[in-house]
Amino acid sequence: MVVLLLLLIPLIGVCFLFLYKGDHKFASAASLKLSFASLLVMCFRLCYWNTPEQLSFTAPWLTSLGSSFSIRMDGLGTILSLLTTAAYFLLFWYMKSRTIERPAAFFAWLLLAQAGMLGVFLAMDSLLFYFFWELALIPMYFLASQWGGARRIPVTFKFFIYTFLGSVFMLIGILYLQSKTADHSFALESIKKIKLTSDQQSWLFWLFFIAFAIKLPVFPFHTWQPDTYEESPTPVTAILSAIMVKMGILGLLRWVLPLFPIASYMWGDVVMSMAVAGIVYASFLAMQQVDIKRLIAYSSIAHIGLMTAGAFALNQLAYQGLLIQLFTHGINILGMWILVDIIERKTGTRSIDSLGGIAQHSPTLTIFFVIIALANIALPLTNAFVGEFLLFIGILATPSTYYWVFAVVGGLGIILSAVYTLRMIRAVFYGQPNATSSMPITLSWHEIGALVLIVGLILFFGIYPQPLLDMTADFSKDLFGQTDITSLFRKS
Amino acid sequence: MQSSFQLAFLIPLLPLIGFLINGLGRNWHSKQWSGLIGSGAVLGSFVISLLVFQSVEAGQDAVIAYFDFIHVEGLHIPFAFQLDALSSLFLLIITGIGLLIHIYSIAYMREESSSSFARYFSYLNLFVFSMLLLVLGSNYVVMFIGWEGVGLCSYLLIGFWFKNQEYTKAANKAFIMNRIGDLAFLLAIFWLVIKTGSASFSEVFDFILANEGTAKFTATDLTVVTLLLFIGATGKSAQLPLYTWLPDAMAGPTPVSALIHAATMVTAGIYMIARSHVIYSMAPFTMSLISWIGLATAFLAATIALQQFDIKKVLAYSTVSQLGFMFLALGSGAYIAAVFHVFTHAFFKALLFLGSGSVIHAMGGEQDIRKMGGLSGKLKITYLTFMIGCLAIAGLPPLSGFFSKDAILLNAFLHHPLQYGLALFTAFLTAFYMFRLLFLTFHGSFRGTAAQQAHLHESPALMTVPLILLALFSIVSGWIGIPSVLAHDADWLSNFLSPVVGSVVHEVSHSTEWILMALSVGGVLLTIGFAWYKFRNYSATESKGVFRFFEQKWYVDQLYDKVVVKPIAYLGKLFNEWVEPHLIDAFVNRTGKTVQLAGKQIRFLQSGKIGTYVLFMVLAMVTVLLIQFFIRK
Questions:
Q1: Is residue B606 part of a domain?
Q2: Same-domain status, B484 and B591
């Protein structure tokens, strides 16, 4: 039941805000309270509510089709729900300090997206999963196309078509799987019982993988992403890149790897090559960007590339690293977007060519930016280090002939990320202030509060990551049990 | 456990607290407070380090685990410290010299605003914290945490005066070149974890000792791991080919150059290899590579130092060169000699840098030695202590550099006669460029402006007292490792370190040793004489031929720019301006158009606005599903 509560709280907000409207102050305060309630539920879930009954919920739904409303919170669901509730709370707290047009609708769409994404993270029925998958997409489309920048219409159109086409492939795959189950059910458990030949696994793998690869995005399916990130209002970009991309990783971990383990192994080299090539390619592009948003967008592709490679490393350490990286990456990139939004709001520009010397008059902002940027490049004792550390060990242990190529090429990202991040810091914050950047940027308490919490999370989990590791240990062990190549081949 | 060991956690913690207090309170503290907090924190660490050192000297050692950093199935990495001879010796160097440099900085940085003064001390404390983690860690991961931490502090301090974009450029260069080495270090750790299942020194070494040469740990594994670790060391310790960041790092305040870029951080690579001596001793190929790289770096940097005119640049190249000597020692298996040279070098190089700081201070920021000359009259203490530093680095007995350099040369002689010859020649070059620096700065007649001449003054006591103390240690610190040929059983250092890093027993006759010593001392004396002849009355002349080549630093920076930096920028441009829009995205758009066209053909979508249709499809589906859901319920 607890899990249902997590879905319902944002939906209450959606109904409420769509019906009653209200100004920015009202809408943001209401959303903040709801997001805090969600976070509180999540904290109670972590501390007290641990029984299987509390963690799952099933209701009949489309029974004639063989689907049921079945949600359950496992380790993967836990860490992603924690990320979602925490990120929403932090973002809404920050948003108290900025205004937005048509605030009620804006916050309502954001809350609907929250419900949709939580549904994706918790669904244990493939049709329900698909339903939430599309449900999460729609609010994002509206948010980007109505509140976005000048090129928003063509850009969001492309974003929508691209991701929608991907999910159509997935729907075909889901329908096929349902037809193969013994009890004609969409339930994950039933699907897992199907005996698939490696050929069947192969093409099903690609049907699902394309959908997730577009969502992530994995090189070369990424071209919608920088445009969409750039054109969306920054709070929306934050949700897209902090939480929504995790839907793709979740798709890989919950659906692709356990259902098609043989195909995941067979196509592992291809996917890994795409992923690590993407790391280097996106890093090179990030070095060239002038717009901070585009720069971070490309750096995000590089991060996602590493996570994708980790998913296909098919070993427990990689899974473990990936699972905690889901959380840490979300928090760090959220911090980056909040800072970018602050800079853009106060200086009126995102171009690193017209900024410079901000450190001179705005040291507090600079300190936040440097810490979060360093976390983004996984400096030790920041939260991202442990995740990347385990991911890389996992990638080096990939059951593939090219394991060391993947690790070395992927590792180049470690160097390149420093290059583009330090370039950005230097161009934006150092040097002599100019006309646009000489105004001191003072931070409101909401802004400082959200940023302090983010930095706190960065340092706490950077020094003591064990709680996150414990949270996901069972899931990664379980997943490894289902995808362990040596035992799979011994069986067949 | 020894009670002093129970306090060991405070050694890094105190500077961390100092960092937090100064960092968070930078707008409220007065300068006195900032300086006091910063120095006091390091003083506390120093006192505890002394206690720990005492216990270790009495034969104790320990590994203390504090908490689990990473504990997952198949991998356990505790946050643990290792207290033994090697780490305790480094603790003393870091906190001892660190303390003197903190005190010196109070005077040196006094013209900064109080918030930037506090920022300076907070960075400096953070550096000490990271460096202490680096040497205290009982596994490669904690070591790496410190390793990247010192890199970060180095970056922050090189770019301390961030309004100058030349300085921040040097800061970026240092961080990025270090990261190249860091990647190799990380890959080595990954490799070790996969092969041995651990990152702890003792477990890794035991595993490799037990399984070396078997399928569990092949000879290739050994070579790969040792090479990768060594590449990591070349980044941090400024060896070929990753040394070019260090001379640029002189953009930072001079006390920073003394502490980070001479005495402590840059010796991290030597510490790492000495710590890993168990595996290095099994890898002859890597060892031989290390010795040659070290020697080549020592020689290259010494030739460049001959022709530099910036007082700090000369010292920077001299540091690169001396680090090369240390790697030469490591490569010839003489770990103790390498650590010995780290120890003595820390004193005399910190002394020389702080001395140069005193000179720069007196000259009102001037760093060009062509504009100095004849400073010995006005800066007596600086001059005398600087001369002691020069004599120590040149290697004249009984100053410290003589003993450590003699140990390195002796080992090189036993290892490879050609290496000995080159190393000896480089030692002469060292004496030559150092005394060139001394004579150009302090002798002859003053070549600066009249205003500078009027400004000349000896530095305040806060600066000269550290100089005097460092000068004292530059004289005596070599006496902990007096070879048996000079005094029986006086080599305390070998006895102290050999349980940890092992020792090589070499059979060499006393007469050979005497001859080697006489050769080096005689050569150095002649070189100094030659430098006196050439530079006592300096007048600027254009350098020609090979000296022009040295002055231009062998054109290595230009080479890297052409071979690495430019191609990467070009590739990025190519990706950004052509591949991304005209290849990948064009393909995506083409596909999209085709789908749209197909849609029009079958007249399914009459308006052609596919987006609207798709959206309605989804919305309709969502609504249907929702209605279904509520009805069924």
A1: yes
A2: no
* Separation between Cα atoms, residue B183 and residue B181, nearest integer Å: 5
Cα distance between residue A156 and residue A204, in whole Å: 28
The span from the CA of A286 to the CA of A294, in Å, is: 7
| B587 in any annotated domain | yes
CB A322 within 8 A of CB A309: no
Beta bridge partners of B137: B81
Q: Could you report the per-residue pLDDT of B142-158, keeping only the tens digit for each?
A: 999 999 999 999 999 99
Which of A14, A164, A288 should one mutate to test binding to chain B, selecting the residue with the greatest count of B CBs within 10 A? Answer: A288
> For B82-139, how does the pLDDT look when each residue is reduced to its tens digit (9 = 90+)?
999 999 999 999 999 999 999 999 999 988 888 899 999 999 999 999 999 999 999 9
Contact B463, B354 (CB under 8 A): yes
What percent of chain B is predicted at pLDDT more than 90? 59
Least trusted range by pLDDT, from A20-34, A367-381, B205-219, B481-495: B481-495
Is residue B464 domain-shared with residue B359, that is, in the same domain?
Answer: yes
Residues belonging to chain B: 633
B377 and B499 belong to one structural domain: yes
User: What are A389-407's pLDDT values in tens digits?
Assistant: 999 999 999 888 889 999 9
Residue B633's contacts (CB-CB under 8 Å, 6 or more residues apart) are A59, A60, A61
Contact call for residues A389 and A324 (beta carbons, < 8 A): no
Total-model pTM: 0.93
CB proximity under 8 Å: B 580-609 to A? 580, 584-585, 588-589, 592, 595
Reference B254, options B320, B181, B313, B322; nearest CA is B313
Distance of CA B441 to the CA centre of its chain: 27
Q: Are B187 and B265 in the same domain?
A: yes
pLDDT digits (tens, 9 = 90+) for A98-138: 888 888 889 999 999 999 999 999 999 999 999 999 889 88
The two structure tokens encoding residue B350: 């910190």
Give the H/E segment covering residue B298: helix B284-306
* DSSP-assigned letter for residue A181: S
The alpha-carbon gap from A133 to the nearest alpha carbon of chain B, in Å, equals 11
- Please tell me which of the candidates B175, B619, B625 has its beta carbon nearest to residue A422: B175
Cα separation, A128 vs A134, in Å, equals: 10
Within this chain, do residues B313 and B405 fall inside the same structural domain, yes or no? yes
Please state, in angstroms and rounded to a whole number, the distance separating the CA atoms of residues B156 and B167.
Answer: 10
Both B406 and B461 in one domain: the answer is yes
pLDDT at B371: 87
Tokens of B455: 């400004």
∠ CA B613-B629-A67, rounded to 5°: 90
Eight-state DSSP code of residue A218: P
